[in-house]
Specification:
There is one protein chain. This protein is mainly beta. The protein contains 5 helices and 34 strands. The strands form 6 sheets. Strands 1, 2, 4, 5, 6, 7, 8, 9, 10 and 11 form a 10-stranded mixed sheet that branches. The chain has a 10-stranded mixed sheet with strand order 15-16-17-24-18-23-22-19-29-28. Strands 3-13-12-25-26-14 form a 6-stranded antiparallel sheet, with no helix packed on it.
Length: 386
């Protein structure tokens, strides 16, 4: 399995106020059948669901790391009432003041949610703009049902009765603590430090822990990085030194002995790990049940850099710190493998954001503009931490 860490993307809002806790308890749900199959599209390591609100169809992210969110467009179209306003913190610890409202009805196939608390956000300004999402089905909404998730088959099922799911073979059982907005948090121990990981289906990456947990004396090998490899609801993380390494990961009743971990500003476990399992989320008993369907072992293969699109232009945002590595953060990419990337409109920038030119290549040529100088480099994909 390949995972190139610069492609990580996070969209998880966090709120801890007492007012917010009461707000996220609201709502009800109705099912037509004991188990409902729900449309799911797993793309770019993120899960999307089509929903119906007020007779119109919208695209929502299925994100256990966030509360339910609706776009400011939906809020205005429905003429919803502002319940209160409060500061919300995203996964990169950026804060903004947001409106809280109650969504009268959301229909997801044969599942009807009523009076769900939701945060209102302008989703056009986030790094998820290319996915054209209109909102998030968040943890406070998910917690009203049991969910079985199988990314490999684009299959999502929901029920009010856990016994309707056959849990035979779900041998990995992971207890969690539900935070005020119902986000599940898993306790583990990494490098002899107690770590609380958000179980985050809105995180396309694998495993990330806060920088303070890293100890170079306790790992055999590590890769030092610089830049920004993640983005939250309000923008990218600030450039910083980071590390990628392998370590033991105790998760519930199972140990993963050689897990690939990166450092950053948040503690998250995400879809690059989850997609190796079918898993059931159970907020009644605060547990996740996991059945393996693929080998969860991950390689670290990379060209040693990553880039973001800023104003439709690709800019190097993340590099591996190794001797004589030619690219630098801030380099403006002109082309990769002779595919011109420096004069794109929003549609074509989104195409290359989601369909990276270098994705399946073993070697690439990169042309960049660095302070007015045009530079050409050839890079080979390498495996690190073997």
């Amino acid at each position: 399995m390949k995972k190139i860490f610069y492609s990580l993307l996070v969209f998880s809002s966090v709120l801890f106020s007492a007012q917010g806790k009461r707000f996220f308890e609201t709502g009800d749900v109705q099912l037509q059948h004991p188990v409902e199959k729900i449309n799911l599209r797993f793309a770019n390591d993120l899960p999307f669901i089509l929903v119906n609100i007020g007779g119109k169809q919208y695209n929502f992210l299925f994100d256990s790391g966030a509360p339910t969110v609706i776009s400011s467009t939906i809020y205005a179209e429905l003429g919803l009432e502002k319940k209160h306003k409060s500061k919300v913190k995203d996964s990169q610890k950026n804060k903004q003041s947001q409106i809280f409202t109650v969504l009268p009805e959301m229909i997801v196939d044969n599942v009807v949610f009523k009076n769900i608390g939701a945060i209102v956000m302008d989703l056009n300004n986030s790094d998820l703009n290319c996915f054209k999402i209109d909102g998030i089905i968040g943890a406070n909404q998910m917690a009203k049902l049991f969910w079985r998730v199988n990314y490999s088959e684009n299959l999502l099922e929901a029920t009010k009765d856990l016994s309707k799911f056959d849990l035979n073979g779900y041998e990995t059982i992971v207890p969690f603590e539900a935070k005020p907005q119902k986000t599940p948090v898993v306790k583990t121990r990494i490098l002899d430090k107690n770590v609380e990981l958000t179980f985050d289906t809105g995180f396309s990456g694998r495993l990330k822990i806060s920088d303070s947990y890293f100890d170079p004396q306790k790992v055999k090998q590590f890769v030092e990085t610089y830049g920004s490899s993640t983005a939250g609801a309000y923008g990218a993380a600030k450039p910083a030194v980071g590390y990628i390494f392998k370590a033991e990961l105790p998760l519930g009743n199972r140990n993963f002995p050689n897990e690939l971990i990166a450092t950053g500003s948040s503690d998250l476990i995400g879809n690059d790990f989850f997609k190796n399992f079918v898993f059931v989320m159970d907020w009644k008993n605060d547990k996740v049940y996991m059945k393996p369907i693929k080998d969860p072992y991950a390689k670290l293969e990379s060209f040693g850099f990553g880039y973001r699109f800023v104003n439709n232009k690709p800019v190097v945002a993340f590099v591996f710190r190794e001797e004589n590595f030619p690219l630098k953060t801030g380099d403006s990419i002109i082309s990769i493998n002779d595919v011109k990337l420096d004069d794109l409109n929003q549609e074509s920038a989104c195409h290359y954001f989601m369909n990276r030119v270098e994705k399946d290549a073993r070697s690439i040529t990169v042309k960049v503009n660095r302070d007015g100088s045009i530079l050409d480099f050839k890079l080979d994909k390498k495996e690190y931490l073997q």
